[in-house]
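Support reply, case 0932

Customer input (verbatim):
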Amino acid sequence: MNWMLVVWVIVLVVSLAALVKSADWFTEGAEELGVYLGVPPYVVGLTIVSMGTSLPELISSIFAVVRGSPEIVVGNAVGSNITNICLVLALGAIVGGHLLVGREIVKIDLPILASSTALLALTAMDGTISRGDGAILFIGAAVYGFYGLRMSQPSPVTQAKVEAVVEEELKPERERLRRVVLLKLVGGAVILYFAAEYTITSVVELSALLGIGADLIAISAVALGTSLPELVVSVMAARRGKLEVAMANVLGSNIFNALAVVGIPALISPLPVTNAVRMIGLPFVAVATVLYFFMAQDREITRWEAAPLVLLYVLFIGMLFGLF
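Our regenerated output:
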């Protein structure tokens, strides 16, 4: 038995778990800090919470560029988006029996998801995502965030009422809250740093030991690992009949992955798009997005409509590793 292989698999699993958990802590701390500082709750929800679901992918992608493994980045984002659609949403619909899709998601979020996926594919077609491409993707993420902020803004009266309630609830616990927020922010950031570093290191080491590209590990194992919390939440929400919220978070995460998780690292350094990502990953994420787009048009996805998405994921993994 190759004990080094076992060791690096364990390191990858532990690093992914720490990456996801520390991202949760950091996001919770940032959310509570925003409320503590008087930032309107709708702003906190739209910016911090929505970004938090993609924080593991973003931090690990930035580390991949800094550590000299930029080929991991696009595979990480593409694999995460395929996993979110074909496993997180599909299994949620299968467990829950069906998935109800809100009117705003059909009219706004799904077209934006399709557009962001198409934009990512267009920038990756030549085999490299340049700094210019990264700027375009990042601007797209900024425009989406600004638009969502404008659309989410409540009336001044509603906002004032919410802030008054929050302020009243926080008064007795301000001192304790300050310590908890500081612990979550600092502790989350420190663990996030080391978890991201060891995630990328383990991917590189495993690719050398197994004789396969690091991009294959990123697009499959890393993408699945960072999506596992959403998968668990989705299945649990489906059992309670509250899958719509989980679905909205996943859609926002996919848009952020396609635009910011790829765009921000590309601003640091051009990103190579490997053959596996270009010939397998991008076509599969396009097919998954198109299928989901049309399935959701009647505002309901049944268990039988979702099942082919899971089969699509199995086919995707099989083609990645030459099983089909």
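We compared this against your earlier run and they match. Two observations from our side: Residues 100 and 300 are 5 Å apart (CA to CA). The two ends are 27 Å apart (CA to CA). Please reopen the case if you see a mismatch on your end.
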